[in-house]
């Protein structure tokens, strides 16, 4: 996938074409943000993808995606493609920490949006590591002026199943040093594609032999890379066959720095702390949760009750914030959903998007 303008089919405004704004971060990376303009909107919503999907996860032509849904609900919608996006190669050509993203990507994107929207309210809906890194920026104080946040799956804490933790421990050494592969790639499922490494294609084949729940090796690879379950990444019955068939293009390859960053959080009492040792990142807090209260943004923490990637992570964040006696942070579990299907599922306009919009409207009404 590459950056390109989207033709978004809304129900109230017909087809709305996005404008693409290429940006360069302060550390020199090309990223982008796309705008679905809504001149009458008093409220603006920034949608943030996870690793290594992209803004495509919010604009899926096979069903009523979140970008169209929010536009119909009266929001101007912006779509981030930060350095974890599969529109770029940054994830596999360079090494970065979550502090790099908090220090460079989110200030660039939020700053550009703010310059375009003036003093209209800016909300954020963020998924997975897009949410985790945005929370690094918010509670690390590199961005501000956010009216509310909806987070799916993970934000300030990381919990994983024991088998996933075993993979977090072993994978970096095994992949980097033993197998000498630059990354893990769902695209290795293309068995006959000789441009893919033979070892990768062999791994995909082996994974397919273990994950008997699905005939799509790309789907099996995503589950294998990311979590614990059959499948781990979403609930099969929430996915349209078209989306399920596109898994290999919607998810990109994943290099090992991610594993090390998340492993550190799991190891440190499941809590995200400053992981980067760069001098310029020492301004970030030792633990991000400690700045909740000092920074206070109404937040809806979501998770599917069958989340097999970061199970219980957002629940733990809600519990730790409640224990501090700080209100304005809600936790909501969505029945029969997993991790990615909260945004990519075929019935999200019925099951999950209304939960998000209800929260946004309650914040706006305050
Ligand atoms: Zn599958």
Number of strands: 10
Helix % is: 25-40%
- Please state the structural category: alpha/beta
CATH topology of the largest domain: Rossmann fold
CATH class of the largest domain: Alpha Beta
Strands of the biggest beta sheet: in what spatial order? Answer: 3-4-6-5-7-8-9-10
Mean pLDDT: 95
Describe, in plain words, how this protein is organized in 3D.
- With 366 residues, the protein is an alpha/beta fold.
- The chain folds into two domains: 7-160 and 271-365, Alpha/Beta hydrolase fold, catalytic domain (Rossmann fold, 3-Layer(aba) Sandwich); 162-250, no CATH class.
- It is 37% helix and 15% strand.
- The protein is built from 14 helices and ten strands.
- Helix 3 crosses helix 4.
- The longest helix has 20 residues, at 98-117.
- The protein is globular and about 55 Å long.
- The termini are far apart.
- The mean pLDDT is 95.
- Bound molecules: zinc ion (ZN).
- Zinc ion binds at residues 214, 216, 219, 231, 236, 244.
């Amino acid at each position: 996938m590459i950056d390109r303008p989207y033709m978004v089919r809304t129900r109230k405004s017909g087809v709305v074409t996005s404008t693409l704004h290429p940006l360069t971060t302060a550390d020199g990376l090309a990223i982008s943000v796309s705008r679905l303009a809504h001149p009458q909107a008093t409220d603006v919503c920034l949608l943030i993808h996870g690793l290594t999907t992209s803004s495509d996860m919010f604009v899926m032509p096979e069903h009523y995606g979140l970008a169209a849904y929010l536009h119909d609900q009266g929001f101007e919608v912006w779509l981030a493609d930060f350095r974890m996006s599969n529109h770029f190669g940054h994830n596999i050509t360079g090494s970065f920490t979550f502090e790099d993203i908090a220090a460079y990507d989110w200030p660039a994107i939020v700053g550009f949006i703010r310059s375009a929207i003036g003093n209209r309210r800016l909300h954020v809906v963020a998924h997975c590591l897009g949410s985790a890194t945005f929370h690094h920026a918010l509670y690390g104080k590199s961005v501000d002026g956010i009216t509310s946040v909806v987070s799916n799956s993970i934000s300030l804490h990381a919990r994983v199943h024991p088998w996933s933790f075993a993979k977090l421990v072993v994978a970096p050494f095994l992949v980097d040093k033993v197998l000498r592969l630059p990354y893990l790639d769902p695209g290795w499922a293309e068995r006959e594609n000789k441009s893919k490494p033979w070892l990768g294609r062999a791994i995909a084949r082996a994974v397919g032999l273990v994950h008997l729940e699905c005939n799509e090796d790309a789907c099996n690879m995503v589950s294998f890379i990311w979590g614990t379950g059959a499948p781990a990444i979403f609930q099969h019955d929430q996915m349209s066959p078209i989306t399920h068939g596109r898994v290999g293009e919607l998810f990109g390859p994943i290099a090992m720095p991610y594993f090390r960053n998340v492993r550190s959080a799991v190891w440190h009492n499941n809590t995200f702390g400053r992981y980067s040792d760069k001098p310029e990142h020492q301004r970030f807090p030792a633990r991000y949760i400690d700045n909740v209260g000092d920074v206070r943004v109404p937040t809806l923490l979501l998770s599917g009750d069958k989340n097999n990637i970061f199970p219980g992570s957002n629940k733990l964040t809600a519990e730790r914030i409640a224990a501090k006696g700080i209100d304005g942070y809600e936790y909501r579990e969505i029945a029969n959903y997993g991790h990615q299907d909260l945004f990519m599922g075929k019935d999200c306009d019925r099951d999950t998007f209304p939960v998000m919009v209800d929260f946004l409207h309650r914040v706006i009404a305050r």
